[in-house]
Amino acid sequence: MIVILHPDSALDTIEGKAVMEYLSARSGITPHSHSITGTGRTLTEIYVVGNVAGLDQAEIESLPGVEKVVRVSREYRVIGRHTGDVRASGFTYNGVRFDPQSLHVFAGLCAVDNPANVETMMQALQDHGQVCTRMGAYKPRTNPYSFQGHGLECLPYVFELAGKYGIRVIAMEVTHEKHLEEIENCLEACGRPTGVMLQVGTRNIQNFELLKNLGRQNTYPVLLKRGFGISLTESLNAAEYLASEGNTRVIFCLRGMKTSFNTPHRNMVDFGHVPVIKRMTRMPVCIDPSHSVGTLEHSSDGIPDVFHATAQGVIAGANMVLVDFHPRPAEALVDGPQALTMEELPIYLEDVELTRETYLKRIQRFQAAS
Ligand code: PEP
Ligand code: MN
């Protein structure tokens, strides 16, 4: 059960305290409060777990501080979309709004290699009006002898260059809680010139201790990538781990599934699931066409598969696109062959815009018809 307080009844008000006292007095019940800052207002939600069957919904709703009570199914209590749910979706981070209506492209390096390439790509992103990017500093690799990322060593120049070129959010994978500490210390030392969205990769989606740790902090939002070989339910439960610990600023990323049928693509593109995630949960949805398609090959129409896959996700309502982009792909230390080039970047961004316009027109048509 979720008890939503009136916007003017925060927990420190008389009405807010009375609601908490009422719930705490019931046996077998544990109330946990969360404050959610949406557009223009902060909402306090109290998640009630335990023996909720015996609670009187009407009585709770009649308490002066309560706006609404939502009975939720056991699954995806926090991230899920439940009947009668009026909870706000999305969040603003470092001045950038992420919600089920927004769209942002995060084009950038799969793995940071050197300051010159970071600067060239940041400059190109700024020239094309972009405020977000992706940057791999900690790389989880299948082969232990492969390049593992420059780690802490590259953070100062990555953050300073991001600030210099107006990049506000960097999606950066972390594989251990110590990486969070390194990012936090480095951003603080540089005067927070940019922001970081912590990325949990497909290989770590069931690293529950990592999820709990990232869920217990609220400074950084989390981009959670779908597990490539587990069920959707299992992947969404991983998102619920983050949210149940207190961090509801989670974006769910589709990145393709490992099957024996995906060849010649790197993974089986799963962007048909964009509307499914948006129906089942309140999380914004990201697509990663680079790691699902894995090639810049194009079709007989001249359009690269990675553009086609992006269009499939954006036309279905994706809210974020994570895409590899490298100014000199031959110098890339990881995934150079799938990275968009300098020449392709503007064409790609225009294609995303064109597809997005079509998606918005499609919504209008369906809304007018209903
Ligand atoms: C990545 O985005 O760099 C990455 C390794 O992705 P995934 O976890 O989806 O394989
Ligand atoms: Mn990669």
Please provide a written account of the structure:
By secondary structure, this protein is α/β, with parallel strands linked by helices. Helices cover 33% and strands 19% of the residues. It has an 8-stranded parallel beta sheet. Helix 3 packs parallel to helix 4. It starts with a strand and ends with a helix. Bound molecules: phosphoenolpyruvate and manganese (II) ion. Manganese (II) ion (MN) is lined by residues 110, 291, 334-335.
Give me the secondary-structure topology.
Blueprint: E1 2-5, H1 14-24, E2 29-37, E3 42-50, H2 57-61, E4 66-70, E5 91-93, E6 96-98, E7 104-108, H3 115-127, E8 132-134, H4 155-164, E9 169-173, H5 177-189, E10 195-200, H6 208-215, E11 222-225, H7 232-244, E12 250-254, H8 274-280, E13 285-287, H9 289-293, H10 305-314, E14 320-324, H11 344-369
Parallel strand pairs: 7-14, 8-9, 9-10, 10-11, 11-12, 12-13, 13-14
Antiparallel strand pairs: 1-3, 1-4, 2-3, 5-6
The protein binds phosphoenolpyruvate (PEP) and manganese (II) ion.
Residues 110, 291, 334-335 line the site of manganese (II) ion (MN).
